[in-house]
């Protein structure tokens, strides 16, 4: 029997969940508070299809990104969306970074990611301007048009009820089971609810009566791009060895599908959940972050890192210096500031950053509470998992 499911959130995860539910014969309504799809995290990321290199073996991120790498690339090719499997280099720029690089190689093997350790000379065959003492060549990394993927998903949802400019304002249990969702125009009655609200996922969960384990703290990632006459310095994707204590990958260089080269992102606390600029400030969002004990514990753990990120945000010269560790020819005057994104990062009360995807369930409800990168890569796989929680597949 077909069920009616309301999906809150019109980014790539919400649209992928809606598509998966419709393919299983369900009636689906998608509520998106903005006037367009993919308005926030999906539309402001680096458009990289991750390989699954960085994540703890057996974790949601490891399993779903490796499978998602294949499924989202196949989806893009099947629907005429731009995608290119170009691979990437993760480079150790000093001897001190070699142990972490070797750990990444081990994780690649454990996760089934095609990757090889290569010498500096071999690295320069891929990237003539790169500087390193060793590198990991990751073969399955790709670049893609994620907003284009969302457009293709929307086209596949012709039978769904898609509602832009329609926020969920209230959620309560249905009188005869299920869930009721107030939108301001009406009250929708559904058999189940799926929360894919990204930057507001914890608030939607609380609206639905849950006390989620984690709180969303927004981190802005700022990008520059190389001036057109300096794009030749980068052929593909060049990443540093990341800090294992943080979920961010460090500023890196990415050649996009249109030939432009993006540099970034950094990671600074956003002053608003949808704060793409320093002047985007919400007193309510700041109070929400300040009242959460985990925020202060995180600040004590990583205060110095946070200061460094803010300084890099304010100084193009510092930003360029971070990039020059990877490609020494990059200089401050080569950079032009471009877009920024905001990452919805879940934070626990003890100050720990949630490292894996976090999905919680309640009667007639599924809440995707932590789905930052590589969620776009993993969207079709997350959708299958979530749909199984809502409407399990028949066995046999």
Automatic annotation (TrEMBL):
Gene3D superfamilies: D-Amino Acid Oxidase, subunit A, domain 2, FAD/NAD(P)-binding domain
InterPro entries, per the entry: FAD-dep_OxRdtase (IPR006076), FAD/NAD-bd_sf (IPR036188)
Keywords linked to the UniProt accession: FAD, Flavoprotein, Oxidoreductase
Presence of the UniProt keyword Kinase in the record: no
Domain FAD dependent oxidoreductase residues, every copy: 4-388
NCBIfam families (alphabetical): PRK11728.1
Name recorded for this polypeptide: FAD dependent oxidoreductase
Taxonomic source organism: Kibdelosporangium persicum
